[in-house]
C-alpha cells in the first residue's frame, strides 16, 4: 500500500511529486501528460523565476524536474478512472486497468474548459468551433472570427488570431473585460479587433461549417447576427472533481472544499490542490504552493504526528 | 505501417504528438496544413473537421493527441 497517491501532471502534481520524493514518502503519481492547462500558452511571463517561457517548455522542465527525483513511482499516459473508499485508505484504478491501495490521496487534477452549451456548438466542433487558439488560429487565415470570453484565455486567443484572421470580434458577457490590463491594452490597439461587450451567445449557425452566430445584448431580448466562419470558445473552466464527488464535499461550482491551511478536504484521507479546489485564484504558482502545503500536511498526518488515517 | 501527422507550426499538442512518436522511434510524415493547402484539404476530407493535430495511422484517423489511443493504434 502506498502512503500517498498524487493525481495530476500540472505544476501542482509535479510540485507534490517532488516534495513527496524528498520527504521519502512511499508515493505514486499518475499523470495523463505533464504541464497542465497552460501547456498551450505561447508565452508565460509570470512563472516566478523565469522571465518568459512557453507552455511546452515549462511542461518539459516540470517533467524533467519530477523525473530527476528518486523513489517516486510515476504512471504516465494513463488516467485514474475511479477511487474507492475502503475501511482503511482507498483503492485507485486507472483506465489501463492498473490498481493499487493507498493511505492518502492528493488531487491536483485541475479543471477543463467550460462549454457554451448553445445549439450548434457540438455540431460544428472542429468545423469552425474551436477551443485552442494557438493550435487552430492559422486555419482561420483571411476569415472573420469570433472569440467568446474576455478573460485571459479569450484575450490570448484574440492575439493568436491577429496575424491570420481578417476581422476578430471579441464577445464578453459583462461591460468590462476580465483579463490582464496589459493584454487588454494590446488588443485595444489592434484595428482588426472589435469588442462586443454585454453580449450573450445564443446559438452557432452553419451548414457544413460555421457561418455565424446569434447573440443577445445582456438584459434585452434583442438578437443580433454576426457573420463569422469561426468561433473560439474561451469562457473559463469547470473543476475535474467528478472522481470524488460521492464522498468529498464540493461547493455549488463543483469545486472541492478544502481547509486552506492544510488543503485537506472533508474526507480525512483526501487532500486537493490548485484549480480543482475552492481556492479563489487559479494560477500555476498558486497550485504549486497548494500542493506543497498538502504534501507537508500529509507527511505530518502520516508520520510526524502519528495520526494515521 | 504508415503514419501521417497533419499539424500547424504553433500547435502544442501537435508538437507533443510528434515528440511522442520520435521517442517511440515511429517514422511518420509530417504535413504542415498552414502552408500546404493540399494537405489541409486532405486532412478535412479524412477527419471531417479542421482542428489539429490529426493522425492517420494505417488509415485510422485520430483528432487530437490521446496518448493511449495512439499507442493502441500503433500497437505499442
Task: Characterise the protein shown here.
The complex is a heterodimer of chains A (309) and B (76). Chain A contains six helices and 17 strands. Chain A is an alpha/beta fold and 309 residues long. Chain A folds into two domains: 2-113 and 237-304, FAD/NAD(P)-binding domain (3-Layer(bba) Sandwich), CATH 3.50.50; 129-233, FAD/NAD(P)-binding domain (3-Layer(bba) Sandwich). In chain A, strands 1, 2, 3, 4, 5, 6 and 17 form a seven-stranded mixed sheet that branches. Chain A is elongated and about 60 Å long. In chain A, 45% of the residues are buried. The model of chain A has no long low-confidence stretch (mean pLDDT 94). Chain B has 76 residues and is an alpha+beta fold. Helix content of chain B is 41%, strand content 22%. Chain B contains three helices and four strands. Chain B has helices at 12-23, 37-47, 67-74; strands at 3-7, 29-32, 54-57, 60-63.
**pLDDT averaged residue by residue of chain A:** 94
> Which band does the percent of strand residues of chain A land in?
25-35%
Major sheet of chain B: order of its strands?
2-1-3-4
Largest sheet of chain B: 4 strands, mixed
- The percentage helix of chain B is 40-55%
Shape of chain A: elongated
Give the helix tally of chain B.
3
Q: Are there runs of chain B of 5+ residues with pLDDT below 50, and where?
A: none
* Count of domain modules of chain B: 1
CATH level-1 class of chain B: Alpha Beta
How many H/I helical runs of chain A? Answer: 6
CATH H-level homologous superfamily name of chain B: Glutaredoxin
Amino acid at each position: 500500500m502506498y502512503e500517498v497517491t498524487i493525481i495530476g501532471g500540472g505544476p501542482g502534481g509535479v510540485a507534490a511529486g517532488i516534495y513527496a520524493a524528498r520527504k521519502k514518502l512511499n508515493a505514486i503519481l499518475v499523470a495523463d501528460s505533464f504541464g497542465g492547462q497552460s501547456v498551450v500558452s505561447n508565452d508565460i511571463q509570470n512563472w516566478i523565476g523565469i522571465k518568459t517561457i512557453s507552455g511546452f517548455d515549462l511542461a518539459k522542465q516540470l517533467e524533467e524536474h519530477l523525473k530527476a527525483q528518486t523513489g517516486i513511482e510515476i504512471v504516465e499516459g494513463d488516467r485514474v478512472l475511479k477511487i474507492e473508499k475502503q475501511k482503511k485508505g482507498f483503492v485507485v484504478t486507472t483506465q489501463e486497468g492498473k490498481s493499487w491501495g493507498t493511505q492518502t490521496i492528493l488531487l491536483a487534477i485541475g479543471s477543463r474548459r467550460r462549454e457554451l452549451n448553445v445549439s450548434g456548438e457540438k455540431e460544428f466542433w472542429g468545423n469552425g468551433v474551436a477551443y485552442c487558439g494557438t493550435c487552430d488560429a492559422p486555419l482561420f487565415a483571411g476569415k472573420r472570427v469570433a472569440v467568446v470570453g474576455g478573460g485571459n484565455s479569450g484575450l490570448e486567443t484574440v492575439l493568436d488570431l491577429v496575424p491570420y484572421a481578417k476581422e476578430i470580434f471579441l464577445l464578453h458577457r459583462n461591460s468590462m473585460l476580465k483579463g490582464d490590463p496589459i493584454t487588454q491594452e494590446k488588443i485595444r490597439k489592434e484595428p482588426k479587433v472589435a469588442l462586443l461587450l454585454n453580449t450573450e451567445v445564443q446559438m452557432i449557425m452553419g451548414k457544413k461549417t460555421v457561418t455565424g452566430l446569434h447573440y443577445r445584448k445582456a438584459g434585452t431580448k434583442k438578437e443580433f447576427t454576426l457573420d463569422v466562419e469561426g468561433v473560439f470558445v474561451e469562457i473559463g473552466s469547470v473543476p475535474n472533481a467528478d472522481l470524488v464527488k460521492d464522498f468529498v464535499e464540493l461547493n455549488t461550482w463543483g469545486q472541492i472544499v478544502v481547509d486552506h491551511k492544510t488543503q485537506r478536504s472533508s474526507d480525512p484521507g483526501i487532500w486537493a490542490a490548485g484549480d480543482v479546489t475552492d481556492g479563489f485564484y487559479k494560477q500555476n504558482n498558486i497550485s504549486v504552493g497548494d500542493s506543497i502545503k498538502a504534501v507537508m500536511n500529509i507527511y505530518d498526518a502520516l508520520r510526524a504526528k502519528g495520526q494515521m488515517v | 505501417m504508415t503514419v501521417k501527422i497533419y499539424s500547424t507550426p504553433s500547435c502544442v499538442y501537435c508538437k507533443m504528438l510528434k515528440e511522442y512518436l520520435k521517442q517511440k522511434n515511429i517514422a511518420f510524415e509530417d504535413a504542415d496544413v498552414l502552408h500546404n493547402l493540399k494537405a489541409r484539404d486532405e486532412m478535412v476530407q479524412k477527419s471531417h473537421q479542421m482542428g489539429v493535430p490529426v493522425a492517420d495511422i494505417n488509415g485510422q484517423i485520430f483528432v487530437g493527441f490521446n496518448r493511449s489511443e495512439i499507442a493502441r493504434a500503433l500497437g505499442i
